[in-house]
Amino acid sequence: MFITFEGGEGTGKTTIIEKLTRQLQNENFQVVSTREPGGSSIAEQIRKVLLNPENKEITSRTEALLYAASRAQHLDEVVIPALNDNKIVLCDRYIDSSMAYQGYARELGEEFINKINVYALNYMPDLTIYIDLDTKIGQARINNNRKHKIDRLDLEDCSFHDKVRNGYLQIAKKDEKRIFIIDGNQTIDSIYSIIYNKVKTLI
Fold first, then answer.
1. Is 167 labeled as ligand-binding?
2. pTM of structure
């Protein structure tokens, strides 16, 4: 079972995934919790390049290609082996992030993103949970979270993050069977409860 989590900055994805992982493991499910970009040694090194605030010169195409490269490594090292072992994979971001951030917000287009991620298209999630939240609220949460380390994408202005959100909503409209939208204005506990019930129904 391959389940991915998507959303803009400050939606609480990471917290929810950690909680869901613990609960499913307590219920004796074999769970692999991972993230993108990253999730494996090489992919994490690519993540550092991508999110380093000092790397302002990275072009949109280079950015998209690095995400695709990290994803390919992550699939081969983490996701595919776990799925072959009949484990549940919970992944913080996947190809929908590339489509929303680079395809829509960077305006590279769907065709370009699909072409460079053709390998990932062979391993689409069984379920994608998208937490929808007003970008200003999300950014405020990030700025108020002392534990959060500001990365290169956090430094983008509100108009960029608005494009990301609109991109996600467009993606969700095109794939309603796979993508489950949740209102991110609710409390974390409420959001978690909805997600837990959705995941357990799927399992």
1. no
2. 0.94
